[in-house]
């Protein structure tokens, strides 16, 4: 523990020198793809020192001068530390405490790695053009200018950009003045408020925009490359509603004079919340009137809302260190859906949220190799690795738990108190608890620390006892092992039961307790109604039996139904119940109508599909899955019906894709027919396009591949390109899959999209080995492309190996990880190996149980796999 903390601290800069203000002049050169910078940093030297260390990586520093008390000092020695990513200037004599100005000149490359100040390409009138954009979070501001690149080194910034006259140049703040030369211009931006380096941003490219004022008269603009501005209207409209919603909810106005949002053709993550200049992948911001799906619209609304929530949580108040990253991401991931729900109430976003965020958090955090929400991190690779479902989804889910516990009003008042107290400053997790305790008088820290400082979460075991229910807790781990530390959680938990469905709340702060309830025989009991708490529940068989009785009816909420299912399969995997019991529960959902419940059903069956893919009885599983999806898929049909809302539209695609994947002939043939018609020049509704493309690929050959690639090449809508890429991952012929894998590294696929295609092929049992072989063979190339801050992309090409389920594959993956130590991703690697091991264990334990259950279902005729 102690060791860990020491090594984490090694990466922090000393606090003897503090930056107060940066004056930066950046000049990109798009012909040489390089940039130069001139910088003046106003420093407060708190303790006399003879050297100054800043972060800097990949930059050539050409001039350095320190001005103190009117005198100039140049360093006697300048040294770089590659590991710590720093530069140190030694001045040969002591600089007294007080203020000083550090002047620097430097050069860098407009890199192709989507971090630091990087290049992005696009076409203008058929001609390839270059632009430049920044991506600094977490630790890449240091690639664009030497700086104190830590979140709690807030300073003000005055930026000037010298750029070609015809290009648009944007930064966090509005333009203060512009000076025009012959073919260049110098754009000066207004000074920023105190902010963290990772939130500074600029973009220089050929752009156009739409502009509107929100209800508080904040100007909002959505920028795209030329010819695409129409596609920004939906995001602009959404932002105009979300920004004032947050200003009102938080009781704190948006802090900057304007908001720009830019769709960038090359972008490593989904979006970045840079203060006042939010940058996005095109698919996260752009909606095409004729070619975008409802799902794409929802994604845009969600991501825009998430990024705008950051303007408060993250930008206005920033975490002290990356250990508290969840204060940024957990809040944006919780406040985002709040705004979406406010604007699009018919999307039923909170049910989707449970199927999505809540389940992802339970899944990742159910591994032994998870990490606490508050986690000690030091070097950039470790920092990069905490941008995961723990910081985002678990962080968000525990906020939801807290709000349920406190009620919306107290929760909101606590957050307002916190935001006001730490405005333009930094905060740690305990600061938030303190603010919430001050307004509520409740033991927030005691409860929450058990969820943020310990890894994992509990499973509550529930059984009938005299006079009520006996509840006990222990850590849930997917592989069925015990945590030797035997941690305890402080769990506020609700209970609802048949004769009193209104939840009653209790508090579990020890190993086990008995709660008094007047239960009749045969009455159902639901613990954790509406899934407000973050834990799983394991019911004794008779209690489970009663729940099963009502699961096919409308008695339980959708949220309760879907989590019951996710829990059942998780408990089966961990060996706490038989897999046949989970399958029995699953089978009782066949009349379900809700999109979110269906998406958990599909995910659960997908888990089993992957697990059983190479078993001799796989065919009977496929028949079960097919007969499960087919009636619902045929009922909903291909075409939109009058009265279909957002959720029906999304459900249609999900059902058709699954029924087709499990081999419903009628559906795959209809997909192929529609595909041919579209290829021949017909139309195809964007909401079913993914299903049509994917099913055509899954059942197609070289002709379909060629047709899909033609669609890919002929569109400049990234959403459509992504649809094609996802469908390409579905080919089943080995030769075609190899062809697709080669294509993934070709110039036609942007570096941001390659991992999505490879991971897509690796996501199913047909393609996994081919994708894995490809990754191993091309590892040097992939590492070269994505190493550095592309860890998220790099990890996608490793994570899919978690789908393997044999000893031989385990040995192969482990050997590769041992050999390739340079990749970092230490935790991801451990998680992958743990997942494979736990699947092997699961199969060994329940193989026969599953087979017998599948065979015993008289209504599922055994059909050989080849005929499905
Ligand atoms: Zn975020």
Automatic annotation (TrEMBL):
The active site is at 307 (proton acceptor). Residues 524-837 form the ERAP1-like C-terminal domain. Zn(2+) binds at residues 306, 310, 329. GO terms for cellular component: cytoplasm; extracellular space; membrane. GO terms for molecular function: alanyl aminopeptidase activity; metalloaminopeptidase activity; peptide binding; zinc ion binding. The record marks 392 as: Transition state stabilizer. The keyword Transferase does not apply. The keyword Oxidoreductase does not apply. Binds 1 zinc ion per subunit. Keywords: Aminopeptidase, Hydrolase, Metal-binding, Metalloprotease, Protease, Zinc. Its EC number is 3.4.11.-. Belongs to the peptidase M1 family. GO terms for biological process: peptide catabolic process; proteolysis. Its cofactor is Zn(2+). It is an enzyme of class 3 (hydrolase). Residues 19-199 form the Aminopeptidase N-like N-terminal domain. It catalyses: Release of an N-terminal amino acid, Xaa-|-Yaa- from a peptide, amide or arylamide. Xaa is preferably Ala, but may be most amino acids including Pro (slow action). When a terminal hydrophobic residue is followed by a prolyl residue, the two may be released as an intact Xaa-Pro dipeptide. This is Aminopeptidase. Residues 234-451 form the Peptidase M1 membrane alanine aminopeptidase domain.
């Amino acid at each position: 523990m102690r060791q860990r903390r020491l090594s984490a601290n090694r990466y922090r800069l000393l606090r003897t020198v503090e930056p107060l203000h940066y004056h930066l002049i950046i000049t990109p050169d798009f012909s040489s793809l390089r940039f130069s910078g001139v910088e003046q940093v106003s420093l407060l030297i708190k303790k006399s020192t003879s050297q100054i260390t800043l972060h800097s990586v990949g930059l050539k520093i050409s001039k350095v001068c320190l001005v103190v008390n009117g005198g100039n000092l140049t360093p006697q020695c300048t040294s770089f530390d590659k590991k710590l990513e720093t530069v140190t200037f030694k001045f040969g004599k002591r600089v007294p405490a007080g203020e000083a100005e550090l002047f620097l000149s430097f050069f860098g490359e407009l890199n192709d790695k989507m971090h630091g100040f990087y290049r992005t390409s696009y076409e203008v009138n058929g001609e390839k053009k270059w632009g430049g954009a920044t991506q600094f979070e977490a630790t890449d501001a240091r690639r664009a200018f030497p700086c104190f690149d830590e979140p709690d080194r807030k300073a003000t910034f005055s930026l000037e950009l010298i750029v070609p006259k015809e290009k648009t140049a944007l930064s966090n703040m509005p333009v203060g003045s512009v000076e025009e030369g012959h073919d260049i211009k110098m754009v000066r931006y207004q000074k920023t408020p105190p902010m963290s380096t990772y939130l500074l941003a600029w973009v220089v490219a050929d752009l156009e925009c739409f502009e509107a004022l929100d209800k508080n008269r904040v100007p909002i603009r959505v920028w795209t490359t030329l010819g695409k501005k129409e596609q920004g209207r939906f995001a602009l409209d959404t932002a105009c509603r979300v920004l004032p919603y947050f200003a009102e909810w938080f009781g704190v106005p948006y802090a900057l004079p304007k908001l720009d949002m830019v769709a960038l053709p090359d972008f490593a993550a989904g979006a970045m919340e840079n203060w006042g200049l939010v940058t996005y992948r095109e698919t996260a911001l752009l909606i095409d009137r004729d070619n975008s799906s409802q799902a794409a619209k929802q994604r845009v609304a969600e991501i825009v809302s998430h990024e705008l929530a950051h303007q408060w949580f993250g930008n206005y108040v920033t975490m002290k260190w990356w250990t508290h990253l969840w204060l940024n991401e957990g809040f944006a991931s919780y406040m985002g859906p709040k705004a979406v729900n406010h604007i699009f109430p018919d999307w039923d976003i909170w049910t989707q949220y449970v199927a999505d965020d809540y389940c992802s958090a339970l899944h990742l955090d159910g591994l032994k190799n998870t990490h606490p929400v508050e986690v000690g991190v030091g070097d950039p690779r470790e920092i990069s690795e905490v941008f995961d479902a723990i910081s985002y989804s678990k962080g968000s889910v525990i906020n939801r738990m807290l709000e349920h516990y406190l009620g919306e009003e107290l929760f909101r008042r606590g957050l307002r108190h916190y935001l006001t107290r730490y405005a333009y400053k930094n905060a740690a997790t305990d600061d938030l608890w303190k603010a919430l305790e001050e307004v509520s008088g409740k033991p927030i820290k005691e409860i929450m620390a058990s969820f943020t400082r310990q890894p994992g979460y509990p499973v509550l075991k529930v059984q009938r006892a005299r006079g009520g229910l006996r509840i006990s807790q222990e850590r849930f781990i997917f592989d069925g092992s015990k945590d030797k530390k035997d941690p305890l959680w402080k769990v506020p938990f609700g209970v609802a039961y048949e004769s009193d469905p209104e939840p009653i709340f209790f508090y579990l702060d020890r190993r086990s307790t008995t709660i008094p309830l007047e239960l009749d025989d045969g009455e159902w009991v639901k613990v954790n109604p509406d899934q407000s708490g973050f834990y799983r529940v394991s019911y004794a068989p008779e209690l489970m039996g009663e729940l099963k009785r009502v699961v096919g009816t409308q008695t339980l909420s959708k949220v309760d139904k879907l989590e019951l299912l996710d829990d059942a399969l998780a408990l089966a995997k961990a060996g706490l119940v038989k897999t046949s019991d989970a399958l029995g529960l699953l089978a009782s959902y066949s009349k379900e109508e809700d999109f979110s419940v269906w998406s958990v059903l599909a995910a659960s069956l997908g888990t089993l599909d992957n697990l059983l893919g190479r078993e001799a009885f796989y065919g009977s599983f496929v028949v079960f899955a097919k007969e499960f999806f087919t009636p619902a898929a045929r009922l909903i049909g291909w075409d939109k019906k009058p009265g279909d809302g957002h959720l029906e539209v999304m459900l249609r695609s999900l059902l058709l894709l699954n029924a087709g994947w499990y081999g419903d002939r009628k559906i795959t043939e209809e997909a192929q027919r529609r595909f041919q018609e579209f290829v021949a020049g017909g139309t195809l509704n964007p909401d079913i396009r993914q299903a049509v493309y994917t099913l055509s690929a899954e059942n197609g050959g070289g002709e379909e591949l060629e047709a899909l690639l033609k669609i890919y090449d002929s569109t400049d809508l990234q959403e459509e390109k992504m649809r094609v890429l996802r469908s390409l991952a579905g080919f089943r012929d080995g030769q075609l899959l190899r062809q697709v894998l080669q294509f993934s590294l070709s110039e036609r696929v942007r570096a941001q999209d390659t991992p999505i295609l490879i991971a897509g092929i690796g996501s199913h049992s047909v393609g996994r080995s081919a994708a894995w072989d490809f990754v191993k063979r091309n590892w040097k190339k992939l590492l070269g492309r994505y190493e550095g801050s592309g860890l998220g992309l790099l990890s996608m090409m490793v994570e899919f190996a978690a789908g393997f389920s044999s000893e031989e594959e385990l040995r192969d993956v482990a050997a590769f990880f041992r050999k390739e130590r340079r990749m970092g991703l230490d935790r991801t690697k451990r998680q992958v190996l743990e997942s494979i091991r736990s699947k092997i264990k699961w199969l060994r334990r329940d193989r026969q149980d599953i087979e017998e259950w599948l065979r015993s279902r008289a209504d599922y005729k055994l059909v050989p796999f080849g005929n499905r």
